[in-house]
Amino acid sequence: MTVAGKTIAITGGARGLGQEFARHLAIAGANVVVGDLNDCGATLELVRGAGGNGIGVALDVTDPASAQAMVEAGLAAFGRLDGLVNNAALYGALHGGRFEAIDDTEWDACMAVNVKGIWNCCKAAVPAMRQSIVQGAGGGSIVNIASLAATFGMPYGLHYTASKAAVIGLTRGLARELGRDRIRVNALAPSAVLTEGTSEFFGDKLERALQAVKAGQTIQRNLVPSDLTGTVAWLLSDESGFVTGQTIAVDGGTVML
């Protein structure tokens, strides 16, 4: 399994899962384009400290022009785009609670980032992937980060749960559209991962939430970011070349499809 020589864009790469994806893929030989609203300097230090190649870009996934600028920066730096990891999401900044108490503005912001943001980034990236395929690559790959929230049905965070369910539907529909272009589209559905965002979302209920998640898993430990990197790298590599439209649960055996 290799991603060596591929150029892969990663959204939400300033910290957490996105940062770990960038570090792992760069170590594996990929050129990484790391986008985030926040500064990506710490991620690039990890990438370059591991001997990898990468650039950071300011990215607002709700803005189509910003998504296009990310892709153009990657093309300018590395000449091609082979993969996209749609990781950016509103999560830690959201307020949980009963569905009728969710603020309208927060609901709309969650959908704008978690769903429309993926649409915007795919619209920007797919033409560049098609061109890379013309240049002789084996095919493009898009990996969308969904969540156990959607596959299990997480309560008291319905805006987040609904947005991640939309990510799964988007993944399936887009996979059918892009198959003829040799571009594959898949999703990951992890359970609660030990990241800053998870800590922020659950707040003082974090330990109780993590214990509840762990108790529902067959493998009874909480996920860390490195638990997802192998699956992401496989989906981005040519070795998963006949896999598309799938949502892979990386949840320690909580939901078995």
Strand and helix order: EHEHEHEHEHHEHHHE
Alpha-carbon distance between the two ends: 25 Å
Main sheet makeup: 7 strands, parallel
Which of globular, elongated, flat, extended, rod-shaped describes the shape? globular
| Alpha-carbon Rg, integer | 17 Å
Report the portion of residues in β strands.
15-25%
Q: Ranges with pLDDT <50 over ≥5 residues?
A: none
- Structural class, by secondary structure, is alpha/beta
E-strand count: 7
Helix content: 40-55%
Arrangement of strands in the largest sheet: 3-2-1-4-5-6-7
Q: What is the overall number of helices?
A: 9
Mean pLDDT: 91
What do you see in this structure?
This protein has helices at 16-27, 41-49, 64-78, 104-134, 148-153, 158-178, 196-202, 206-215, 226-236; strands spanning 7-11, 31-36, 53-58, 83-86, 140-145, 183-190, 247-250. The protein has a seven-stranded parallel β-sheet with strand order 3-2-1-4-5-6-7, sandwiched between helices. 47% of the residues lie in helices and 15% in strands. The chain starts with 6 loop residues before the first strand and ends in a 7-residue tail after the last strand. By secondary structure, it is of the alpha/beta class. Helix 1 (16-27) links the parallel strand 1 (7-11) and strand 2. The chain is built from nine helices and seven strands.
